[in-house]
Backbone:
C-alpha cells in the first residue's frame, strides 16, 4: 500500500527543539513589540462605529457602491457584499465619533439620492459606541484567557501536571503569532477574527492531545525509555496523522478564503495561519516543555534522594494509568 509518510520514519525533532524554540521566542517578542507600537487594526466591533445594511439596485457590484460613497465624501468606509450577488445586499461599515454615529445612515441615504440612484433602501443600522467597543475588546481577550485556563485544568486532569503547561504554552504561542501576522498585514481585527482564534485554540489543542496521548502510551509500554526518546518516537508515529489532518483542513479553509467572498475572507485567513502554526507548536513547543518539566522533576527527585530531603511536596508525580 502506498504511504505518503513511511511508518518507520525517524526524524530527530527533539534534537532540533532548541533552535525552533528560539525562533518562537523571537516571534513572540516581536509580536509584543509590534502590539505596543504599531497595534492591531481594530474593527468597529472593538472601537465603536456604525454598520449600515444597504439594498442597492439590482445588478450593482461592490465597486459601484464604494465609488458612489467616495464621490459623496465617505472615504473611510469598508464595504462588504452579503447574500447572493443577485440580491445586491451590502454592509457599509465606518468609524465615527460618538456625535456622528447616529447620522451615518442619513448620510449614506443622502449620498445615494444626490447620485440620482433609485431603487435602493436602508435595511438595517447598527451603532456601537466607543465605550461598548472597548468593553467588547476586553471581553474578547478575557474569553481567550478563560479558554486557556480551562484547557490547563483539563490537560492536568487528563494527563498530569507535566503536560498541562506545554499544551497551554503551545496555544498561547499559536494565538500570539497569529495576532502578530494581523498586526503586520493590518487586516481588520473584529469579533469574527476573535471567533476564529477561539476555534483555533480548540483545534490546536486536539492535535497536541494526540501527541501527548502517544507519549503516555510509549512510556507505559517502555518504562525504562528516556523521555526524549519517548517524545521523539511519539512525534514520528503521529506525524502522518498531524500532516494529513492539517493539510486536508487547510485545503478546505483555503477554498473558503479563495471563493467565499469578502465576508469570510479574514476568518478563513486566520484559520489558515493558525493551522500551520498549530501543527508546528504541537511538534516543537508543547513537546519541548514536557521534556523540560519531566527532566527537571527527575533531577529534583534524584537530588532529594541523595540529600535525604523531600523534593517539593515530597510526592512524586505518578505516571497516569490508561
Residues:
Amino acid at each position: 500500500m502506498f504511504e505518503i509518510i513511511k511508518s518507520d520514519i525517524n526524524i530527530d525533532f527533539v534534537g532540533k527543539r532548541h533552535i525552533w524554540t528560539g525562533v518562537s521566542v523571537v516571534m513572540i517578542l516581536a509580536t509584543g513589540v509590534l502590539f505596543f507600537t504599531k497595534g492591531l487594526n481594530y474593527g468597529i466591533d472593538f472601537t465603536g462605529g456604525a454598520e449600515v445594511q444597504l439594498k442597492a439596485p439590482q445588478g450593482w457590484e461592490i465597486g459601484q457602491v464604494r465609488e458612489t460613497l467616495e464621490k459623496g465624501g465617505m472615504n473611510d468606509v469598508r464595504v462588504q457584499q452579503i447574500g447572493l450577488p443577485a440580491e445586491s445586499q451590502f454592509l457599509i461599515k465606518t468609524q465615527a465619533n460618538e456625535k456622528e454615529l447616529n447620522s451615518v445612515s442619513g448620510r449614506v441615504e443622502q449620498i445615494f439620492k444626490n447620485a440620482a440612484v433609485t431603487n435602493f433602501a436602508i435595511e438595517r443600522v447598527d451603532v456601537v459606541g466607543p465605550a461598548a467597543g472597548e468593553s467588547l475588546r476586553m471581553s474578547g481577550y478575557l474569553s481567550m484567557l478563560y479558554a486557556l485556563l480551562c484547557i490547563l485544568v483539563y490537560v492536568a486532569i487528563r494527563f498530569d501536571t507535566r503536560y498541562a503547561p506545554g499544551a497551554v504554552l503551545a496555544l498561547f504561542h499559536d494565538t500570539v503569532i497569529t495576532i502578530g501576522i494581523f498586526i503586520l498585514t493590518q487586516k481588520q481585527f473584529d469579533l469574527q477574527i476573535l471567533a476564529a482564534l477561539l476555534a483555533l485554540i480548540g483545534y490546536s489543542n486536539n492535535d497536541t492531545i494526540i501527541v501527548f496521548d502517544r507519549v503516555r502510551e510509549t512510556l507505559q509500554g517502555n518504562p525504562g525509555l528516556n523521555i526524549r526518546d519517548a517524545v521523539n518516537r511519539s512525534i514520528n508515529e503521529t506525524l502522518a496523522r498531524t500532516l494529513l489532518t492539517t493539510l486536508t483542513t487547510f485545503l478546505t479553509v483555503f477554498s473558503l478564503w479563495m471563493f467565499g467572498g469578502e465576508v469570510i475572507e479574514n476568518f478563513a485567513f486566520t484559520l489558515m495561519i493558525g493551522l500551520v502554526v498549530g501543527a508546528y507548536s504541537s511538534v516543537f513547543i508543547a513537546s519541548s516543555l514536557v521534556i523540560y518539566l519531566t527532566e527537571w522533576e527527575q533531577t529534583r527527585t534524584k537530588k532529594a534522594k541523595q540529600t535525604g530531603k523531600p523534593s517539593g511536596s515530597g510526592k512524586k508525580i505518578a505516571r497516569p494509568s490508561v
Remarks:
- The mean pLDDT is 83.
- The domain at 49-128 is CATH 3.30.70.250 (Alpha-Beta Plaits).
